[in-house]
């Protein structure tokens, strides 16, 4: 359990229906921050295809995705993922997350980001985790700041979302200063 009433667990193919339902229910809420999506994205089949791709990336050690689920009733209320996992001298990944609009502002995203950072360090031996937020996404910036991230950059026209190229603030969290595993052996 990452926070009272919410657990974080690895995503599985059987989550496709719940993911589609939560994404569809939150479509308007998340529109300002998300890339434009095809209708198929909001279906169980579309989510099953995405999960298959993500599971293949997980098996290759390139990504990890978790779902956030209420312990009372099992309702899916968010997702967090590590992507672009790079080992060797970089030892870095990007974190992405979203939480159901009905659950926003309750510390779920912050707890999930902290748990993902712990997994990044302990399970993947990563040195740092990075994230980007649109300049006007103050809620996501608060999540990252509370989770120990520091702003380190600005990326103009970084991501095409909600119909236009959007500027982003870049954040990172250094997890440790140890040598990369296997480095220099």
Key structural traits:
185 residues; alpha+beta; 29% helix; 5 helices; single chain
Could you characterize what this model shows?
By secondary structure, the protein is an alpha+beta fold. The protein contains 5 helices and 7 strands; from the N terminus they run E-H-H-H-E-E-E-H-E-H-E-E. The protein has helices at 16-25, 27-30, 44-59, 108-122, 138-146, and strands spanning 6-10, 64-70, 76-86, 92-99, 128-134, 150-161, 164-174. Strands 1-2-3-4-5-7-6 form a 7-stranded mixed beta sheet, with helices on both faces. Helix 1 (16-25) crosses helix 3 (44-59). It is globular.
In short:
The chain has 185 residues and is of the alpha+beta class. Helix content is 29%, strand content 33%. Helix 1 crosses helix 3.
How much helical structure, as a percent, in the residues?
Answer: 25-40%
Q: Give me the secondary-structure category.
A: alpha+beta
User: For the CA atoms, what is the radius of gyration?
Assistant: 16 Å
Strand content bin = 25-35%
Name the overall outline: globular
Runs in which pLDDT lies below 50 for 5 or more consecutive residues are: none
- How do the strands of the widest beta sheet line up side by side? 1-2-3-4-5-7-6
Count all strands and give the number: 7
Total number of helical segments?
Answer: 5
Mean pLDDT: 95
Characterize the largest beta sheet: strand count, sense, and whether it forms a barrel: 7 strands, mixed
Gap between N and C termini? 37 Å
What is the H-and-E element order?
A: EHHHEEEHEHEE
